[in-house]
Write a structure and sequence with these properties.
With 96 residues, the chain is α+β, with helices and mostly antiparallel strands. Helices cover 34% and strands 34% of the residues.
Length: 96
């Protein structure tokens, strides 16, 4: 079953954002990860769901590969950049 990260991100530091965006794809590839969407626009169709920032959805071939990426040495430097440059809310889930 595939593993997904749903990310709500607000960048507070443009330099950090640029560094992260330029390098993130290279960390995903070895783990089979890919962006399904990255975009600032959304429409709430039902309920009171409100995102604070930009919506990002990442897909991995399995939950194990997703969590391996998140805890990897390859991603660690960018994780530090993101945590120092942005405010994020992230959920992980499995799905078909």
């Amino acid at each position: 079953m595939a593993g997904y990260f749903l990310v709500d991100i607000i960048w507070d530091d443009e330099e950090g954002r640029q560094q992260y965006v330029e390098r993130i794809s290279d960390t995903l590839t070895p783990f089979g990860g890919e962006f399904l969407t990255r975009g600032p626009e959304y429409t709430t169709v039902e309920g009171d769901w409100v995102l604070d920032g930009r919506l990002v959805v990442l897909r991995f071939p399995s939950a194990e590969r997703a969590m391996a990426w998140y805890g990897s040495d390859e991603y660690a430097p960018l994780l530090a950049v993101r945590k120092g440059s942005a405010r994020t809310k992230i959920i992980f889930f499995e799905g078909a």
